[in-house]
Amino acid sequence: MNYFMRFDCWGGNHPIINMQLEKAILNSIGLELNIYSYKQQYEAVSLLKSVNNVLDYNVHIRKSGELGFYFSDDIPERNRKYVESAIEFLTGTSGTGYIVHDETDPYLTTLSDSRLNSYINALKLIEPYLKNLNNNLYIEFSNTLEINYYLKLIRQISHTNMEHIGSCIDIGHVYYFYRVKQGYTKNESIEKLKQFIVDVKNTGVPVYYHVHDCDPYNPHPWYGVADHKCIGDGEIGIDGFRRIIPLLENENLNLEILPVSNYHDAILTESETQKLIAYAKKHNLDAEKQIRDGKIIKQTLDDIVKSRNILDSLVKEKR
After folding, report:
1. If you classify domain 2-318 with CATH, what class do you get?
2. Contact 310, 232 (CB under 8 A)
3. Quick one: which of 25, 93, 158, 298 is 20 to 30 A from 117 by CA?
4. What is the three-state SS of 219-242?
5. Residues 155, 227: Cα–Cα separation, whole Å
6. What is the pTM of this model?
7. Rg of the chain over CA atoms, in angstroms?
8. In this structure, what DSSP letter does residue 316 have?
9. pLDDT value at position 105?
């Protein structure tokens, strides 16, 4: 399996950026950059020139005031602006792939025929630029659209023979949809998740994965979401991933784990501590907060590697 990890751009030459890069290089894990603005895009492009030949990386275009591409908008003038903005962003950023949520306007759970046609037509305009870049755009199931409408969208993409538009299957999001929104049991939800993966793969579109555990009834204390946990720390659990792993083998997986709250036992090296203190002093920041943030990211990076090791061990078990 080819692994990526969530990578947050903290701006400038922050020591936490270097901690992430060093961990990724040491463990041969690619990066998935979370980009919320054109400023972050510029910073990321500059930063990654130094690792372009060392690490693969994808770009997760996050919804924000600047970056919100509602391809389903069936008002032609607005749709055209979204397409133009998306093309501007894509052609200004390198990487091996791009990820966008399956966002609709305004957050609809269904797609009318008109909105589906608008979505497909927008993607048709973007496809030639992706072909020229030799990159893919992956549309992520984000729990906004109902799953049957998401599958309808992916199947329509397949029917139009767009080679560079695909699906991002988010394991935690799909599990949450079946477990909470449709009320299935844990075991039923895992089986539904497996069938969803099969259904998407059968369309023949390129597929990329966000992989993390999900605990629907114990949300993250800071972010309020039920998923994006270290594998084994949620309800899917190691046994659940043991059932899923045959479908993930040899795929591109992003270990999309949010900064963890159980960071208190994380141990920074003397060098890491001094760099954080020096950064705080230089930028007139709270040194204790910088050290706290350093511990959070250190523990999060350890959980990412732990998740990778768990998945690798499950593949070996299967063999």
Report:
1. alpha beta
2. yes
3. 93
4. CCCCCCCCEEECCCCCCCHHHHHH
5. 26
6. 0.93
7. 20
8. H
9. 66
Residues 6+ apart with CB under 8 A from 317: 242
Alpha helices in the chain (DSSP H): 15-26, 38-48, 76-91, 113-133, 147-159, 171-176, 186-203, 237-248, 270-282, 287-318
How confident is the prediction along the chain (319 residues), in pLDDT tens digits per residue?
899 998 877 655 689 988 998 999 999 999 998 888 888 888 777 777 766 667 888 988 887 777 778 888 888 888 898 899 888 888 877 777 999 988 776 677 899 999 999 999 999 999 999 999 899 999 999 888 899 999 999 999 999 989 999 999 999 999 999 999 999 999 999 999 999 999 999 999 999 999 999 999 888 888 888 899 999 999 999 999 999 999 999 999 999 999 888 898 899 999 999 999 999 999 999 999 999 999 999 999 999 999 999 999 999 997 7
Paired with 3 in beta bridges are: 253
Exposure string of 97-128, with b = 16+ CB inside 10 Å and e = fewer, is bbbbbbbbbeebeebeeebbebbbebbeebbe
Amino acid (one-letter) located at 286: D
Strand partners, 138: 99, 166
DSSP lists the bridge partners of residue 33 as 7, 59
CA nearest to 163, candidates 192, 135, 201: 135
Q: Is the Cβ–Cβ distance between 315 and 245 less than 8 Å?
A: yes
First to last CA, the chain: 14
Counting runs of H as helices and runs of E as strands, what totals does the chain give? 10, 10
Please state, in angstroms and rounded to a whole number, the distance separating the CA atoms of residues 31 and 255: 10
Amino acid in the structure at residue 149: Y
Helices 270-282 + 15-26 axis angle, to 10: 150
Whole-number pLDDT of residue 49? 72
Query: How far apart (Å, rounded) are the C-alpha atoms in residues 216 and 213?
Result: 10
**Residue 70: its pLDDT value, please?**
86
Q: How far apart are CA 169 and CA 173, in angstroms?
A: 8
253 CB-near residues (< 8 Å, 6+ apart): 1, 2, 3, 4, 209, 210, 211, 311
Residue 170, amino acid: D
Query: How far is the CA of 301 from the CAs of 84, 200, 308, in angstroms?
Result: 36, 30, 11
